[in-house]
Amino acid sequence: MHITKRSSKMKRYTQLLAIGGMVSSLSAFTYAHEGHDHSMRMDMSAKQNTTMNASMPMEHSQHQSPSISPQVQNQDGHAEHYKEHGGQIYQSTQLDTQWLLDEDGQGTLKSKLKTWVGTDENKLFIIADYTKAESEKSEQSLAALYSRNIADFWDVQAGVNYRYNPDREVDKEQFEGVVGFHGMAQYFFETDADLYVGQDQQWRFVLETERDLLLTQKLILQPYLEMEWVLRDESKYAAKTGLADAEVGIKTRYEIVKNRVMPFIDVGYGYSKGRKETDWQTASDSKTGWVYGAGLSLKF
């Protein structure tokens, strides 16, 4: 009996050990399998992160490249466009000097220097005038004008003009503001139309226009018209209001060096309204008459 009970207990104990071993083996296998899956997922995740990190700079660079390249191309294109369409800087200077005689034989030396520098759109003009009549002191003026292109063949100009008249007892020096237009009018008349505003309520409008007519490649006629209107003048040496001065004429020039060295003769008809009486001057009458002379024009 005791032997039988012991053997049955041994069998049960052996069965329990076998079952426990199987459970332990199954648990170990399950844990190992889960660990392998977890490590595989970790490896896959790491690989994905590495792939994403490696690909992100490429995508970012690919995203930036199109944005930078057009900017550079646009800048280069704008520079080329600006250079080809008005971006070049030019310069021109013209000096005209002439000796004129009126009907009374009174001689006058006139000289005008006109120079400008800039592009097709923006220019700076410097204009200097010198006039010396016989038995009188010389008169000078100097203007600096900014010129801005506003339409085909037309610029708007603004600046300041300085005038000096040593024959006057007072107000020998005067400054004026200037605004006007410079360009090519119909039928190729080169035109300047300017409004001058100075001290003592001096308002005047000046119009100058001229055109070249080619007789040959070197012999050229140049009809011209110059007019000045005094709109208002309360200065000590006031001019009469209205059309104060006008001159119409024609120059004939011969270009010894094409558009460089050009002697000319000048014949014109002039009108001057005169000055009104003030405490500093006596009134003068209007006068008209022919003027003629010769001169030399230089361009460089």
Automatic annotation (TrEMBL):
Keywords: Signal. InterPro entries: Autotransporte_beta_dom_sf (IPR036709), Cu-R_B_prcur (IPR007939). Residues 1-32 form the signal peptide. One of its GO terms (cellular component) is cell outer membrane. This is Copper resistance protein B. GO terms for molecular function: copper ion binding. Residues 55-80 are annotated as: Disordered. Residues 63-73 have a biased composition (Low complexity). It comes from Acinetobacter beijerinckii ANC 3835. GO terms for biological process: intracellular copper ion homeostasis. SUPFAM superfamilies: Autotransporter (SSF103515). It holds the Pfam family CopB.
